[in-house]
Amino acid sequence: MPEADLRARLVKVGVDLLTRDGPQALSLREIARSAGVSHGAPRRYFPTHQALLAAIAREGYHQLGQQITDAVRDESEPARSRVLQLGRVYLDFARGNRGMFELMFRHDLLQGNQIGLREVSRQLFAVLVDLVGKARPGVSATVVAGAIWANLHGVALLRQWGSLEIAMQTTEIDPLLHASIDAYLG
Amino acid sequence: MPEADLRARLVKVGVDLLTRDGPQALSLREIARSAGVSHGAPRRYFPTHQALLAAIAREGYHQLGQQITDAVRDESEPARSRVLQLGRVYLDFARGNRGMFELMFRHDLLQGNQIGLREVSRQLFAVLVDLVGKARPGVSATVVAGAIWANLHGVALLRQWGSLEIAMQTTEIDPLLHASIDAYLG
DNA sequence: CACGCGAGTAGACACTGTCTACGCAGGAAG
DNA sequence: CTTCCTGCGTAGACAGTGTCTACTCGCGTG
Predict the structure, then answer these.
(1) Domain extents for chain A?
(2) Mean of the per-residue pLDDT values for chain B?
(3) Which end of chain A, C or N, has fewer beta carbons within 10 A?
(4) What are phi and psi of B173, to 5 degrees?
(5) Straight-line distance from CA A17 to C1' D15, in Å?
(6) What's the CATH fold of domain A58-185?
(7) Which bases of chain D come closer than 7 Å to a protein CB?
């Protein structure tokens, strides 16, 4: 009787497939197969393949958000090092969950009214804005936070792309992270 | 008798399709159809679909490289404003050639020994390292250049993703660019 | 008991990328 | 001149995909 809430099970199976076999394993039929249902079953809960993928990506945002709020929870720490922690978590997540990270920022998942993804990322962004505001009061927190986020995101992507290792001859990105924080938070 | 160098024509048709109809129009059969040949013809020149896509992406790198070298050609300008020009070109290219930019950084095009993509991007990176070295002698040019590139790349992606507009309530990214250059080049 | 309806099945359809066998030109060798 | 051979492109098959539609089956309500 493993017929409990197929919708949630499809998402869970999708996450597992994603982490185990990568993004190309996330075909609709493969997910259905792994969940033990026919290929038409998901349609009852997700109108399209993209909708299912978006639900899986949302799960990724949930995990990342959890890890980030955990990392910056300690308010006794100086804001600057909390930003540093946030950055480390972001980069670790991107490296540790490559497939998920790639899925989370796929362009085509935003087209079809898949609202919610941008919403969730906006939440994460708000945390960063708050920290920046505390670390450097006076400056435009949103601009600096946007710049830092872009920096983190770019580092994460270029590293996965392999460019940084080749260009900078090292796999160590902590100096990059420090350079970024130093540059923006003095 | 439009049978001149099918290989080059396939790439050209691919670029056209990419700019006109977006990345999802780049199926092997669609490219072959648009080129007026059968779906098996490309196989003579590209062992796999990914190889053809990689060739198209390489064309994009060529264009971007051209625009960048044009933008920083004037050596009488101060290095700092040349970096600014480079950044503008990078961001404009990403916005003006969305499909191409997305294709250029697709993860799966690097797997199958599609060497050359990383090589080309390394060239672009070298230009940036050179400029940074002139703008701020003394510091580690590769680290700063890597940070700037990551920053540019992140801004380009997050903007196309729509996050920046929502988070920062503006489509204007020039302040972000200036903030980045200011932060890293003092 | 009959009915309806929600949930999942099964098959069709058009499409994709890859593989293989085939045709067909044009030039080289005899 | 005829006979190969080889490069280039065609055409069909195959497994796999996402979407759509018709169907079945079980369960609760009337």
Answers:
(1) 1-45, 58-185
(2) 90
(3) N
(4) -110, 0
(5) 21
(6) Tetracycline Repressor; domain 2 (1.10.357)
(7) 8-13, 16-22
